[in-house]
Amino acid sequence: MDFDLSDEQKMLAEQARGLLAERTPFDHLRKLIDSGAEWDEPLWRELGEMGFLGANVPEQFGGLGLSELDLGVISQELGRVNASVPFFSSIILAADAIRLAGSEAQKTEWLPKLVSGEVVACFASAEGPGPILGQKVEFSGGALKGTKSPVADAGIAQIAIVQAGASLVLVMLEQAGVERTKLESFDQLRPHYRLDFNAAQAELLPGTGQISTLLDRAAVQAAFEAVGGGEACLQMGRDYVMERQMFGRSLASYQAIKHKLADVAVGIELAKSNAYYGGWAAGASVDDLPGAAAAARLSAIKAFENAARENLQVHGGIGYTFEANCHFYYRRERMLAVILGNRGFWADRLLNAQPGTQGKAA
C-alpha cells in the first residue's frame, strides 16, 4: 500500500477543508455553545448536499461509493475544526451498521435518508463504564427494554441503532416507549443522552457477527478524526510560540518548546500512518483489520492527547480560558478517548490480533 493520499483524495481533503474552515470558525463554535444548540444544522445540510455524508455508501443507495480511506479524509477534516455535527454517530456508526447488517429493505429505506441528511441516526452501545457488551437491554418479540448511556447525538436523532447482546436493532426514537434524558457532556459541541426503552417497538438488523467489524471500522474513522484534531493543535501551538515574546526573544526559540512540538509532530505522523493502514485494511483486508484498527485507535488517542495537552501548556495561563481556542480540542480529545471502549479494551484487541495470542488477553 501507499502511505500517502492520491491526487483525488488530496482534492477531496482540500474541498472539505475549505468548506469547513469557512463555516466553522471558533467564534461560530462559541455561539453554538452559548445558544445551547444541539448541533450545527445548516452545516449538516450542506455536507449532505455536497455528498460528504454518503462518501462510502454504495451508489445504489444514494452514496458516492468511495473507499474507507476517502471517508477517513473527511473525518480528518471534521476533526480539524471540531465540527458540531453528528457525522460519527449517524454516518460512521449507524449508516455503516445498516449497510453491514441490515436487510435490503432496511438499506433501501434508511440509507438514502441518512446520506441526504434528511434523517439523523445515533448508535447506542455504551452502558456506562466497562466493556461494550450490550447486556443491559433485552430485545424480544419486537420490543426493546433497558437503558443505554451515554449515547451521542440522541437528542437530534430520529432513529437509533441499538446493540442488544450480539444483535443490532433499529428503533424509532419518537415513540411512547422511548425516553431521552440529556446528560452533562464535557464536550459541549457533542451532546450525550441516556436512552430508556420500555417495550419500545424495534426491528432486528438480520446480519449477524458484524458488531466486531463495525467497531473496528469506526475505530479507524475515530483515529482519522483524532489526527485532524492533533494537527490543528500542533499548528495552533506553533503559531502561538512564533508570535509570543518572552524575555526579549521569541518563545519558539527555546529548545524546550521545540522539543515539545517535535514530540507532538512525531506522534501525529505515527498515528496518521496507522490510520492510513487502518483505512486500507477496512476496505481491502478483513484479516488485517482488527490489528490495524486497534493500532490506529491507540496511537491516535495518545497523539491527540499529547497534542491537546502541549497546546495548552505552550499557551500558558491564557490557554485555559474560554476566550482561547485550546479547550475545544482538549474537550474533543477527552471525548474521543472513551468512545468505542477505553485504551485497555483496544490494547486487548491489539494483543489478540497478533499471531499466536488469540484469546489470551483478558
Topology:
Blueprint: H1 7-23, H2 26-35, H3 41-49, H4 68-81, H5 87-101, H6 104-116, E1 121-124, E2 137-140, E3 143-152, E4 159-164, E5 167-172, E6 178-182, E7 192-205, H7 211-243, E8 245-246, E9 249-250, H8 255-284, H9 289-315, H10 326-336, H11 343-352
Parallel strand pairs: 1-4
Antiparallel strand pairs: 2-3, 3-7, 4-5, 5-7, 6-7, 8-9
Helix pairs in contact: 1-4, 4-7, 4-8, 5-6, 5-7, 7-8, 7-9, 7-10, 8-9, 9-10, 9-11
Structure description:
The chain has three domains: 7-116, Butyryl-Coa Dehydrogenase, subunit A, domain 1 (Orthogonal Bundle); 121-205, Butyryl-CoA Dehydrogenase, subunit A, domain 2 (Beta Barrel), CATH 2.40.110.10; 211-352, Butyryl-CoA Dehydrogenase, subunit A, domain 3, CATH 1.20.140.10. Strand 2 and strand 3 form a beta hairpin. The protein is α+β, with helices and mostly antiparallel strands and 362 residues long. The protein is built from eleven helices and nine strands. The two termini are 32 Å apart. The model has no long low-confidence stretch (mean pLDDT 92). Strands 1, 2, 3, 4, 5, 6 and 7 form a seven-stranded mixed sheet that branches. It has a two-stranded antiparallel ribbon with strand order 8-9.
